[in-house]
Amino acid sequence: MEEGRFEDAEARARALVAARRSRRGRDRRPGTVWYAAYAAALAVRAHGRQGPSVLAEFEALIAEAERTYDFHHGLLLPARLNRAWVLIDEARPAEAEAEARDVLRALARRARPAEDRQRELSALVCLGHTLCEQGRHEESETIARHSLPRADEDHLVRSLRILLVRSLSGLGRHEEALAQSSEAQALPEPPPYAAGHVEFRKATALHGLGRAAEARAEAGRALAACERYLHPTHPRITAIHALLSRITPR
Questions:
Q1: Average pLDDT, consecutive stretches of 10 residues, N- to C-terminus, the chain (250 residues)
Q2: What are the Cα distances from residue 24, in Å, to 19, 27, 31, 33, 123?
Q3: Are 85 and 65 a contacting pair, CB within 8 Å?
């Protein structure tokens, strides 16, 4: 999936699931089916293909992981966090917020801050976006600003910068949002699943400042980046088209 070949990754994972399930008798490696099914669901979510089956897949995986906690415990919380992201995509932000907060509480109970720091920051990014979806931009700004000093990997720094840009734009502080988007763009090239995200948020800030030509150009770059890797029904592509429709025509 690192190269953006999400459909290939999904197909390989589903083929493994089918092959394992077709075997007679007890599989000597029963976790293989779960891990392969999880990889397939991750590929679908990263690609952005929308449909009710995505949420159903994650919920089935979570239910199985909870039944066999000792076996799948390492991926239970990430699976729940992915469920929260799918709920955001389905415009159910209050449920997504509850899930993200539950994940954060579970991480706090584990009391392993060094080991769980990346997962905690990922959960905070998700929580921040659930708050943005509900118009609670001051809260999401606080999360982003408090978390950024703790992030030491590019993908987390980028995600938190994007959250901060979105929060500031939501508060009408477009100049600050634009400055933060430039900070995010200075980072190394994002992975395929994050294609076009920084450009989209920058275009939103430019639009808020009334700089229509620049906003249109930046949104066009965002759309081109997304279309290179992501499914046409990806929520980011839908959001970019909506932004372009709001920008004053030439």
A1: 82 88 60 89 93 91 82 81 96 98 93 85 98 98 97 95 98 98 94 96 98 97 96 96 87
A2: 10, 8, 16, 14, 40
A3: no
Q: Between the CA of residue 179 and those of 115, 168, 169, 183, 194, what are the distances in Å? A: 32, 10, 11, 7, 19
The pLDDT value given to residue 241: 97
Q: From CA 206, how far away is CA 229, in angstroms rounded?
A: 25
Contact 119, 73 (CB under 8 A): no
- Say what the pLDDT of residue 25 is: 47
CA angle 243/248/250 to nearest 5° reads: 120
Residues contacting 158, CB < 8 A, separation 6+: 184, 187, 190, 194, 198
CA distances 157 to 140, 187, 202, Å, are 15, 9, 16
CB within 8 Å of 88: residues ≥ 6 apart: 96, 126, 129, 130, 133
Matching CATH number, 155-250, of 1.10.10, 3.40.1050, 1.10.3470, 1.25.40: 1.25.40
| Segments making up each domain of the chain, as ranges | 155-250
d(Cα 25, Cα 237) in Å, to the nearest integer? Answer: 45
Beta strands in the chain (DSSP E): none
List phi, psi (to 5°) of 51. Answer: 165, 155
Burial (CB < 10 A; 0-12, 13-18, 19+), residue 193, is buried
